[in-house]
Amino acid sequence: MIHASAPGKAILLGEHSVVYRGPAIVLAIDLRAHIWAEERGGDGIWIEAPDIGASGHFDSSGRYHPIRGGSERWRSLNPIRVVALEAMRRLEAARGLRIRVESEIPPAEGLGSSAAISVATAAAVGRLLSGENLPKEMVCEIAYEGERIVHGTPSGIDNHVSTYGGALRYERGKGFERFKVEELPLIIGDSGRRRSTGGLVAKVRRLWERHREVVDAIIDAIAQLSEEGYKALREGNLKRLGELMDIDHGLLSALGVSTPELDRMVYAARSAGALGAKLTGAGGGGCIIALVEQPDRGRVAEAIRRVGGRPLRAGFTDIGVEVEEI
Ligand code: PMV
């Protein structure tokens, strides 16, 4: 049997503006999705997802036969099937498969849960079929097919950072750049509220249509501060980075994507000593990210808890997808 795991992600700076212009700075975090894959006699793909109480069989015509959970669960499991089929297509090896998925990453909260599952699936099925680890580039491309099912035509940020780990700068038209980060002490605060990235991107678009010049100025400001934050991060200037995160949260609020829960966590984290705090990802729910030095970590985590959030033990990680035979 093959086991593969891949990390989630958090956007440090540049969400929403990156849809228009300027960079996004994205970090892999050490919450991981796990996939176990093995061959199984018969035809099609059996998928088990105990986290959501679902398991079922996709036959070779793509029909879903539930074993546990209702038939509507096919929608959650289908990206895994699509990624496994894409691996089979590329490797010209069709097999019956059994795949089990478990994830530490809260779904639909902007932490890259679907991408991590797709990346781990691509890596596990690729190794199972070919007997060796696929090149990361290929894992990333195969995983993108799963992301397309979930998100339409996403930028590819999530599957990139999940495959390679570490820190990534992405800008439309310029592509991806991995860069080195020495130290980045983070705390993530989870509101527990799921949301849809597409809905929030559309909300910002509608605001832009009504107030083009004003919204363009906000987007320009976020693009500028993301650029400066990228420099501050590379120089290890955490104080400056924290200030830029605070400004970014204000601008994202101005775009209408913050919520009272996110604001409460952001202000609680700052009052408890965070160098900076902001919502991360599309907003509307999901999570905040706070930059917190060691001596203040306990206090900030407690402050997030006091306002109803859940501090996640998830730091920055350099470790991307990993595969082992067990
Ligand atoms: O899916 P999330 O929450 O990580 O948000 C993605 C970032 C956005 O800029 C809001 C959308 C995008 O496609 O870049």
Please identify, by name, the CATH architecture of the largest domain. Answer: 2-Layer Sandwich
What fraction of residues sit in β-strands?
Answer: 25-35%
Quaternary structure annotation? single chain
Which word captures the global form? globular
- Unreliable spans are none
Structural class: alpha+beta
Order of H and E elements: EHEEEEHEHHHEEEHHHHEEHEE
Small ligands present? (3R)-3-hydroxy-3-methyl-5-(phosphonooxy)pentanoic acid
Distance between the termini: 6 Å
CATH class of the largest domain: Alpha Beta
The major beta sheet can be summarized as: 9 strands, mixed
Indicate the mean pLDDT.
Answer: 96
List the total number of helices: 10
Helix content: 40-55%
Gyration radius (Cα, Å) is 20 Å
Number of spatially distinct domains = 2
Reported by name, the CATH topology of the largest domain is Ribosomal Protein S5, domain 2
Number of strands: 13
Gist?
By secondary structure, this protein is α+β, with helices and mostly antiparallel strands.
Descriptive tags:
alpha+beta, single chain, Alpha-Beta Plaits, binds (3R)-3-hydroxy-3-methyl-5-(phosphonooxy)pentanoic acid, nine-stranded mixed β-sheet, 10 helices, Ribosomal Protein S5, domain 2
